Amino acid sequence: MCIFCDISSGKIVPADIVFENEHVIAFRDINPVAPSHVLVIPKKHIRSMHEIGGDEISLLGEMILAVQKVAEKEGILKSGYRIVTNVGADAGQTVDHLHWHVIGGRKLGWEF
Ligand code: 5GP
Ligand code: ZN
Predict the structure, then answer these.
(1) Which of 8, 51, 74, 83 could form a Cys-Cys staple with 47, CB 3.0–4.6 A?
(2) What is the dihedral of CA 108, 2, 19, 56, to 10 degrees?
(3) Is 17 inside any structural domain?
(4) Which domain holds residue 62?
(5) 111 in a domain, yes or no?
(6) Is the separation of the CB atoms in 52 and 46 below 8 Å?
(7) Domain assignment present for 11
(8) 52-101 pLDDT, tens digit each
(9) If you measure from the C-alpha of residue 20 to the centroid of ligand 1, how many angstroms do you get, rounded to a whole number?
(10) How far is Cα 103 from Cα 85, in angstroms, rounded to an integer?
(11) Does 90 fall in a domain?
(12) DSSP of 51-67, one letter per residue?
């Protein structure tokens, strides 16, 4: 269905997987912007946060728990980290499969 579906199904693209369960998968971004840059995605193909429906609310909880595990594994729990999700063109969304960027490992700026 899309490149992230291919990664989550293990079909193609060897991905550097940090965490996985039946609902979500977390893997390193191919073009990291910080020492730690992991993408957390639902295995189900959902285009963006804006397409989350009532049936998928529990999936967001799974994603939050996955972020916590990623932050612990990456050793960025104490130093801090940021969760970012882009919705649509102006935000810079380039892959139309919901993903949360988990970014840390250095002091982050705040620029738009
Ligand atoms: P967006 O710009 O949609 O918020 O984020 C998409 C992210 O996916 C980008 O940071 C980009 O580097 C990453 N990305 C795109 N294609 C691949 C890929 O094939 N493998 C991995 N690991 N990351 C990818
Ligand atoms: Zn997909």
Answers:
(1) 51
(2) 90
(3) yes
(4) 1-74
(5) no
(6) yes
(7) yes
(8) 999 999 999 999 999 999 999 999 999 999 999 999 999 999 999 999 99
(9) 17
(10) 11
(11) no
(12) G--GGGHHHHHHHHHHH
DSSP single-letter state for residue 50: G
Contacting residues for 100 by C-beta, under 8 A, at least 6 apart: 39, 40, 41, 63, 67, 83, 84, 85
| Residue 99 annotated in active site | yes
CA distance 38 to 31: 10
Q: Atom 20 of ligand 1 has which residue's CA nearest to it?
A: 30
| CB contact at 8 A, 96 and 58 | no
CA 10 to ligand 2 center in whole angstroms:
12
Stated pTM of the model = 0.97
The protein residue whose alpha carbon is closest to atom 12 in ligand 1 is 31
Number of domains in the chain: 1
Percentage of the residues of the chain whose pLDDT score is greater than 90: 92
The CATH number given to whatever domain includes residue 70 is 3.30.428.10
pLDDT tens track for 6-61: 999 988 777 899 999 999 999 999 999 999 999 999 999 999 999 999 999 999 99
